[in-house]
Design a protein that fits this description.
Elements (H helix, E strand, L loop, with lengths): L2 E3 L2 E3 L25 E3 L2 E3 L4 H28 L2 E5 L10 E12 L14 E5 L5 E5 L4 E5 L5 E5 L1 E2 L5 E2 L6 E2 L5 E5 L4 E5 L5 E6 L4 E6 L5 E9 L6 E9 L5 E10 L10 H15 L6 E4 L5 E4 L5 E5 L5 E7 L8 H14 L8 H10 L11 E4 L5 E8 L3 E7 L5 E7 L7 E3 L2 E8 L2 E14 L2
Parallel strand pairs: 5-24, 11-12
Antiparallel strand pairs: 1-2, 3-4, 6-31, 7-8, 8-9, 9-10, 13-14, 14-15, 15-16, 17-18, 18-19, 19-20, 21-22, 22-23, 23-24, 25-26, 26-27, 27-28, 29-30, 30-31
Length: 448
């Protein structure tokens, strides 16, 4: 207790306990402290109570500083750097062997088993399939044996109808939801296909994930028209229930080629070739949300994969040294085959026009660092480094601690690859037809 004294300043209170036996009363006397000289300096006596208070305050300050430093250390993202060569596990090399178990799809016959040129699908915890046929604008449910169960939704603009359909996914209540980029809405269904509700999106969002808090992780497209040059801005981020951006993860601006001013076939062919050249083997973002709401994001300009917290804070960066893969003639043929199926079908053209466009496409020397990645149920990260449909897929494997442990080739096709219910699933293209596949797989350890 600090006291003001007429004949001096009291820096500490000397506490005398008097009349201890008289009704247990305590009287405190504040006496002035007389400074005393000691070798030219003044010594100041601090009372016991004041000393204890100062020590407590000092200890509190030190504790707060330590907590602040620990907090800052925890907020710093962890960088995991990996070498070019996989380390193996337990002194052995690793590979994953896939064995096809089930195929859904036919080339002719029952339309409930025929798919268009673009197919996305998912499975629930019971092993049922939900296949999105982008061409027909519907979702088809099959049981775990691949037998047709029902059709969910149809093309249209009404409740439960689609103008565009994306990957079927499940929310925390195991309800099915599908985002509609054109209709700017998300349709929700129960597992039996009953329409529950729709949510209108105020933003142009695609590849939408609904996390356990009801927020959205998505790809926002912003198209800006300009007299001289248009721009397409892509924003990957977390959006709240009103679709306001609350955390930005990645932003990229893409400038398309200048619009064709001529009407002759040569000008149109060059314009088309410029569009395809602008996307040929260019880095493209890839991301997904895990069951615990963590966001895995990659932009393969470099071999880096970033992990973000459910709130959008960068917590981990996974890196690997690598040698870039050259774009081969097979890669070029594969790229143009995909464009024939997905791009040219929207354009009036003939074979001569396609041939001219093909000859005008410009390709980079190297491919991006990787194509995409997927999380296995055991916590391993499987990265698709390179692929040629029908021939091979080259995988990198990172263990649960994100250490690079293996690289191997497999014949499984990588399109739409995911793992669930201790199985692997993917879309396969065979003679231009799409099929849904389920695979058994085995992680094998071996010595070289």
């Amino acid at each position: 207790m600090l006291c003001s004294i007429s004949n001096g300043i009291c820096f500490g209170c000397i506490i005398n306990e008097e009349h201890r036996d008289e009704a247990n009363q305590r009287q405190y006397h504040c006496e002035p402290v007389r400074p005393k000289q000691s070798q030219g300096f003044r010594d100041i006596y601090l009372g016991d109570a004041m000393l204890k208070n100062i020590l407590c305050i000092f200890g509190l300050i030190i504790s707060l500083c330590i907590l602040s430093l620990l907090s800052q250390a925890q907020e710093e993202p962890i960088i995991i750097s990996n070498p070019k060569t996989p380390t193996g596990k337990n002194g052995k090399s690793i590979r994953i062997v896939f064995a096809e178990e089930l195929t859904i799809g036919v080339t002719k016959g029952d339309k409930n088993y025929m798919f268009g040129g673009r197919v996305y699908f998912n499975t629930d915890d019971k092993g049922n399939f939900y296949v999105n046929d982008w061409d027909v604008k519907r979702i088809i449910k099959y049981d775990p044996d691949g037998k047709y169960v029902r059709t969910i939704g149809r093309a249209g603009q009404g409740p439960g109808e689609f103008q565009n359909v994306w990957i079927p996914r499940f929310d925390k209540d195991n309800n099915l939801y599908v985002s509609d980029l054109v209709g700017r809405r998300i349709n929700f269904f129960n597992p039996d296909g009953k329409f529950l509700r729709q949510v209108s999106m105020s933003q142009r969002l695609s590849n939408v994930f609904v996390n356990s808090k009801g927020n959205y992780v998505a790809n926002q497209s912003i198209y800006l028209e300009d007299e001289k040059r248009d721009r397409n801005i892509t924003v990957i981020g977390i959006f709240d229930e009103e679709f306001n951006l609350v955390s930005e993860i990645h932003r990229h601006t893409w400038i398309p080629p200048k619009r064709s001013t001529g009407r002759d076939r040569g000008s149109r062919a060059q314009f088309t070739a410029d569009i395809l050249s602008n996307s040929a083997f260019k880095p493209y973002h890839t991301f997904f949300v895990s069951d615990d709401d963590f966001i895995y994001f990659g932009y393969p300009e470099q071999y880096e994969i970033c992990v973000y917290s459910p709130e959008g804070r960068l917590v981990r960066t996974i890196k690997r040294e690598y040698d870039p893969i050259k774009v081969s003639e097979k890669h070029k043929e594969e790229y143009f085959r995909i464009q024939e199926a997905e791009f040219f079908r929207f354009l009036p053209h003939d074979e001569q026009y396609k041939k001219r466009v093909k000859g005008l496409i410009r390709y980079p020397k190297y491919k991006p660092a990787y194509e995409h990645f997927v999380l296995m149920e055991n916590g391993w990260l499987l990265v698709v480094v390179d692929s040629i449909a029908g021939e091979y897929t080259l995988f990198d494997v990172f263990d649960e601690n994100y250490r690079y442990i293996a690289q191997f080739k497999a014949t499984i096709q990588e399109e739409g690859l995911f793992f669930r219910n201790k199985k692997a699933y993917a879309v396969a293209t065979e003679d231009s037809y799409k099929f849904v596949k389920r695979y058994n797989f085995e992680i094998q350890e071996y010595r070289d």
